[in-house]
Amino acid sequence: MAKIIRNKLTPNDFNSLTKLVGWGQLPLDQISKALENSVYVATVYLNDELIGMGRLIGDKSISYYIKDLVIAPKYQGKGYGTLLIKDMIHFIKENTPKNYKFCLELMSAEGKEPFYERLGFERTPSKSCGAGMFMIVENN
Questions:
Q1: Could you tell me the pTM of the whole model?
Q2: I want to staple 58 with a disulfide (CB 3.0 to 4.6 A). Which of 18, 54, 64, 85 is the partner?
Q3: How far, in Å, CA of 23 to CA of 102, rounded?
Q4: Which superfamily is assigned to 2-118 in CATH?
Q5: What is the CA radius of gyration of the chain?
């Protein structure tokens, strides 16, 4: 049975999971700082095996951003990503006063958009939002 454990993700586990999905690896100290500054960090274990992780960043009031959602490829399509997203939303609701609205955003990996749409996310651009955008900056 799968279980979610919050605040247990290590930099090495982060790199192991991102490597499995082709995202590469980052310096451990950089990951450590990112994890410390995250609003939410969780792992998914199946029995004793780490099979996924999720991470939220945000202002803890209006805006939250799903920065990382990774499920090991052999476990994708089995509901574990949905389990993490639902836990993220539950976490935000637990920590946000009643009657507040908040925005939960993300940038989907290519081809994964239908997964997020099934959970209620909308593609941008849409009637109310422009295209999502990003910039990667290297500090050499």
A1: 0.91
A2: 64
A3: 28
A4: Gcn5-related N-acetyltransferase (GNAT) (3.40.630.30)
A5: 15
